[in-house]
Every structure is written in C-alpha cells, then in structure tokens.
Design goal:
By secondary structure, the protein is mostly beta strands. The protein folds into three domains: 1-82, Jelly Rolls (Sandwich), CATH 2.60.120; 108-222; 240-331, no CATH class. The chain has two helices and 26 strands. The protein has helices at residues 261-273, 307-316; strands spanning 4-9, 16-21, 25-26, 29-32, 39-42, 48-51, 58-59, 66-70, 75-79, 103-105, 113-115, 125-127, 132-136, 146-148, 153-157, 167-169, 174-178, 188-190, 195-199, 209-211, 216-220, 230-232, 237-239, 251-253, 284-287, 327-330. The protein has a ten-stranded parallel sheet, covered by helices on one side. A seven-stranded parallel sheet has the order 11-13-15-17-19-21-23, with no helix packed on it. Strand 1 and strand 2 (16-21) form a beta hairpin. The radius of gyration is 24 Å and the shape is elongated.
C-alpha cells in the first residue's frame, strides 16, 4: 500500500501534515528555508519515534501501516525519490510548498482541493486521483513523467497537456479535445468517460495501454495502433474491422457499441484468421453488452463458418494447433 496523505491537522501550532504508510523502510527528505523539521512516526503497536533532521530513514518495527506526522513550518520541498514507487506520496495543502522533487501520490482524499495552477513544479509524478482538485490541464507543471488526475474536476483540452510524460490518466474528468492532439511518446493513455473525440487512426502510436471507453472516439478498429497490450474502446462510436494486427493484445474491450451481428462476426473472424500470431498467453476479447450475438451455434465444426463456431475454436483449440487460447465474452 502506498503512503497516503490524510490532510493538514489544524489546531496545533504549527499545523502538521498527517499521512499513513505501509512500507518496510521510509526514507523521505524535507527541504526547509530555515530550521529543522519534526517527524513523528507512530507504529501500529503504538511505539512512537521522533526525528529532527531533514532526511530520515525509518525502518518499520511493527507489522502493518504506521502513521507519520510532519510539522510543515518552513518546508519548501519534499523529496521522495529515494523511495521509488513504494514511497510515492501526495501533498495535502500543497500551497505550503514551493518546490517538489521525486514522486508525489494522493489517494482518494476528497478533502483535498485547490487549483492545479498552484502545484509546485519539479516533481516527477503528480497523482491526485479521486480528489477535489480542479483547474485547466494547461496549468499543470511540465517535466513530470506521470500525470494522474482520475476522477477530479480537472478540465481543458488534451492539446494543452504537458508533453514528454510516459503516463496520462485523466479518466472521469472534463478534459476534451481530439485524440490527434494528445502528446506523443507515452506508454499509457487513459481518457475514459471524458469529452475526448476523434478518430482512432490519429491516436499516438507506441503505447502499451489505450483506454478511451465512454467517449466519442470513432473510426475503424482496423486503424488502432499495434503493439499494445490493452485496448479499451467500449461504449464508443468505433466501427468494426479486422484486429489481426493487434498481435500483442492481452485485452481487447469492444463491448456496448451497438454493433449488428455482421460486425461482431467480422471482428471474431479476424481474430480466428490471425490466431497463430497473437503472442499473449491468455488473450481476452469482450464484444458483449449492446452488441448483437455472434452468428451460429457454439459448437466444434471444421472448418468453422459462423461466429460462434470460430469462438469455440479460439477458446478450446480442439484441433491441437497450439495457438494461445482466447477468453471471449459475447452477447
């Protein structure tokens, strides 16, 4: 479990940052304009530890999550980079800080609010999902590798996102714009349940994860970029086509698009034709929901001529061809 800021504790002089952590060794560094910080760590068994240096290294002495209190007076930055992902941390009351470095993580704290234009620059990761932060993506600090603002009030055009990151997660926000204007070069694009639109043919290539479910994205699935593991385009306006080029796919999610049976059969047929070249050990295809049922009866037939006969072959490999078997969900 990642450390997670709970908030600013008022009523003390000065106030304290409060968060919890579940990690074997906790090694943060605070930067101050003057003086020294006070770190207080309370283990799950009640044992309390106090540190009065900017950089600390605390080794957990009791099993489970421990509490951390930090007096933020005169603090201008928090560096968590030495901790890696296991020590990502979010900053509550980020207006107290003027610079950040390392990774900053904020998990499910609806009490955190503020405009993202006030975020300090310099962090490698900005993760504020399920919070009440708002503002335009045009005001995000540049230079980070992760931007994770899922389920927030953030808005603006994807054309204004900072470039150069590897991870963009803005699902369930008011972000809009064309996929053609997304920053290129990332490995992760998650814009589900947004106002993003445009043709899948214009998606940036080279990513491993594309999630654009519940958007107005359109175009043929035959034009999806190849080379990824995850393709989520459920509840969109994409049209049917061959997906034989998605040879590295683990999940292809095309449910709830309202396709007629002929379109469903087209996708299934393309998978069956290319069955020998898919590389994932357990690939999955979801064509369920509002899509019509595939044609025919689910049974073994050689050669298969209907959608369900091809699905039977893909799921069971009754002829012992040795391809990677599929898990297929359909209406």
């Amino acid at each position: 479990m990642f450390p997670q800021i709970r908030g600013i504790l008022a009523g003390s002089a000065p106030p304290r940052l409060y968060f919890t952590a579940d990690i074997a060794t906790f090694t943060p560094t605070a930067t101050l304009s003057s003086g020294a910080p006070k770190w207080t760590i309370i283990e799950s068994d009640g044992t309390e530890y106090t540190y009065n240096t900017a950089a600390i290294s605390h080794t957990r002495t009791a099993a489970g999550e421990f509490e951390v209190y930090l007096t933020p007076e005169n603090i201008t930055g928090l560096d968590m980079s030495s901790c890696g992902l296991a020590c990502d941390i979010g900053v509550s009351g980020f207006d107290l800080l003027t610079s950040l470095s390392g990774s900053f993580y904020f998990q499910s704290n609806p009490n955190l609010s503020g405009d993202i234009s006030a975020l300090p620059s310099g962090a490698d990761r900005y993760l504020f999902y399920s919070t009440s932060v708002s503002g335009s993506v045009a005001d995000l600090p540049s230079g980070a590798s992760y931007y994770y603002f899922y389920s927030t009030s953030v808005s603006g055009s994807v054309a204004d996102l900072p470039s150069g990151a590897s991870y963009y997660h803005f699902g369930s926000t008011s972000v809009s714009g064309s996929v053609a204007d997304l920053p290129s070069g990332a490995s992760y694009y998650h814009f589900g349940s947004t106002s993003v639109s445009g043709s899948v043919a214009d998606l940036p290539s080279g990513a491993n994860y594309y999630l654009f479910g519940s958007t107005s994205v359109s175009g043929s699935v035959a034009d999806l970029p190849s080379g990824a593991s995850y393709y989520y385009f459920y509840s969109t306006s994409v049209s049917a086509g061959a997906v034989a080029h998605l040879t590295t796919a683990f999940i292809i999610d095309l449910r709830d698009i309202g396709w007629p049976q002929a379109d469903v059969d087209t996708v299934v047929a393309s998978v069956y034709t290319a069955r020998a070249v898919y590389t994932n050990a357990t690939p999955e295809l979801d064509i369920s929901g509002s899509n019509a049922a595939p044609s025919g009866i689910y049974q073994d037939a050689t050669p298969p001529t209907t959608g369900k006969e091809k699905i039977y072959k893909l799921e069971n490999d009754p002829d012992g061809e040795g391809f990677n078997k599929w898990g297929i969900t359909h209406s």
